[in-house]
Amino acid sequence: MEVEQDAIIAALTSVVDGIAATFGPVCEVVLHDYRRPENSVVAIAGSVTGRRVGGAMSEIGLRMVARGDEAADELNYVTRTDAGKLVKSSTMLLRDSSGAVFGALCVNVDVTAASEVHALLGALAGTGTLPEEERPVTTFGDDIDSVVDVMLDAHRHQSWALLDRTGRLDLFRSLDERGVFAVRRAIEQVAGRLGISRASAYSYLSQSRKQATTGGHS
C-alpha cells in the first residue's frame, strides 16, 4: 500500500498550487503525509499559517491521526491562529484503496477582513455575530514540539500533584485522544512537563488505553 500512497501524494502535489492560485493570496493549501507527523507538510502554496515544506501538522492533524481510519473529513470550520487571524478551513483526508487514512489535503482561507466587514454590516443592520474570541485557537507551526506544548498548556490548570489516579488517567486519555502520543519523543515531553519519570508516563498511558478499551474506570 505504501507505493499506492506515495503515488496519491505525488499526484496531488501539483494540485496544491492550482487551488491556491484560484483563490488568491488569502488562500493556503497544504498537503500532509500523516505517516511522518513531525514533518508532515510535503507541499504548500500560499502563506496563511506561515508554515513551510517539512513542517509539522497542527492540533487538528494530530487529532485525525489519533482517530485513525475512523477519522472523517472536517469541512468549513473556523478557528483563530495564535497571531489573531480568523481562518476558515477544510481538511479532506487521503485514503488508499483499503480505506486507510494516510494524509490530508487542507485548504485554509484567511477570512479576517471578510469577518470584520461582516461584523460592521451586522452592527449597522442590528444583527449579532459570533465574537472572534469565541473561536477556538489552533496552533500552526513547523516545530511539532511547540504544537504539543500548546496542547499540554491547555491542561495547566490541572496540577498533577493534586490529581487522583482517575484524574491522572483521564489526563493521559485526553492527550492521547488529541493525538499527542502520535509524535516521537512526546512521552518524554509530557513526562518532563508533568515532572514525572518516563516510565511513569508510559505506565499511565498504557493504563488509560486499557481503560478506554474496556470502558471501565477505577
Description:
The chain has 218 residues and is an alpha+beta fold. It has helices at 2-23, 59-67, 112-125, 144-153, 165-177, 186-194, 198-214, and strands spanning 27-33, 41-45, 74-80, 86-95, 101-110. The protein has a 5-stranded antiparallel sheet with strand order 2-1-5-4-3, with helices on one face. Helix 4 (144-153) packs parallel to helix 6, helix 5 crosses helix 7 and helix 6 packs across helix 7 (198-214). The radius of gyration is 19 Å and the shape is globular.
Write the layout of secondary structure elements.
Layout: H1 2-23, E1 27-33, E2 41-45, H2 59-67, E3 74-80, E4 86-95, E5 101-110, H3 112-125, H4 144-153, H5 165-177, H6 186-194, H7 198-214
Antiparallel strand pairs: 1-2, 1-5, 3-4, 4-5
In short:
The protein has 218 residues and is α+β, with helices and mostly antiparallel strands. 43% of the residues lie in helices and 18% in strands. The chain has 7 helices and 5 strands.
Number of separate strands: 5
Strand order of the largest sheet: 2-1-5-4-3
Q: Report the mean per-residue pLDDT as an integer.
A: 84
Order of helices and strands: HEEHEEEHHHHH
What does the overall shape look like?
Answer: globular
Terminal CA distance reads 40 Å
User: What structural class is derived from the secondary structure elements?
Assistant: alpha+beta
Low-confidence spans: pLDDT under 50, at least 5 residues? none
Strand content: 15-25%
- Helix percentage: 40-55%
For the CA atoms, what is the radius of gyration?
Answer: 19 Å
Number of helices: 7
Biggest sheet details:
5 strands, antiparallel
